[in-house]
Design brief:
- InterPro entries: Inositol_monoP_metal-BS, Inositol_monophosphatase-like.
- This is Inositol monophosphatase family (SuhB).
- Its EC number is 3.1.3.25.
- It comes from Fructobacillus cardui.
- It is an enzyme of class 3 (hydrolase).
- With about 260 residues, the protein is α+β, with helices and mostly antiparallel strands.
- The chain folds into two domains: about 140 residues, Fructose-1,6-Bisphosphatase, subunit A, domain 1 (Fructose-1,6-Bisphosphatase, Chain A, domain 1, 2-Layer Sandwich), CATH 3.30.540; about 110 residues, D-Maltodextrin-Binding Protein, domain 2 (3-Layer(aba) Sandwich), CATH 3.40.190.80.
- The protein is built from eight helices and 14 strands.
- The strands form three sheets. A seven-stranded mixed sheet has the order 3-4-5-6-7-8-9, with helices on both faces. Strands 11-10-12-14-13 form a five-stranded mixed sheet, sandwiched between helices. Strands 1-2 form a two-stranded antiparallel ribbon.
- A hairpin with a 3-residue loop joins β7 and β8.
- α1 packs antiparallel against α2 and α6 packs parallel to α7.
- The N and C termini lie far apart (about 50 Å).
Length: about 260
Amino acid sequence: MTEWTNDQLTQVDQTVRRWLAELGREARKTKNQDLHVGQKEGDFRNIVTNLDSSNQAWLIDHIQAIDPAAQFIAEEGDLHRPETMTGHVWFIDPIDGTLNFVYEKTDFAIMVALYIDGKPTLGWVAKVMTSQVFHGGPAIGAFLNDQKLTQVPDLGLAESILVVSGRRLLKGERPYLALASAALAYRVLGSAGISFSRLFLQQATGYFSKLSPWDLAAGRVLSETLGYVVKPLDGSPLNMLSSNTVLIATTKTYRESVKIVKD
């Protein structure tokens, strides 16, 4: 069976929400002496901890228990990834913002998403240090814990706080400089999940970055549910099997941003 009813989606939504709340409690208890920190290839800032690995394994085991047909696209290890988006594809980012987690003890998240036959279906973004779980999807609505979130007002770029990739801004990549300059203000947060949470809370109305599938998947589900546009600036389709340079923004901000980049 591929499709789930709305009642089934609601049940799965609440189940995964409870899991992320539990993992969040454990993460808040973690002390420096409990962490083993390693580096991934390519960049000394790209680090991984034992909690990344254990969270991912825990989530995979629990998801398989409720969805035996689950396929996974996850950040850590050499997990086999599907070649298409057919069926139930789950995305896992076990600690998003690991640098923030290790060195600042704040502004990190745990993210999970379910896509069914390529359709963004359910998403969860747990803002760990504030015990906030954003969750839901287009069929059931988007929520912060038990509170239903409201649709985003259609603000323009000059009215918007834009979250951008700091690394790409420092490199002087033109779209990032142009959009940051045109916005009311810009922010650099170091975590996709925390950046998305600003959108969900309407503390920002745009987010522009290059995102891996596990960085984008959950935030896309919830952003589209709340009325944001989630697209590359050239309007090309998103490929959830690979990285995307994407703007998540109100319709007005998206259109204005496309015009700025074209000009």
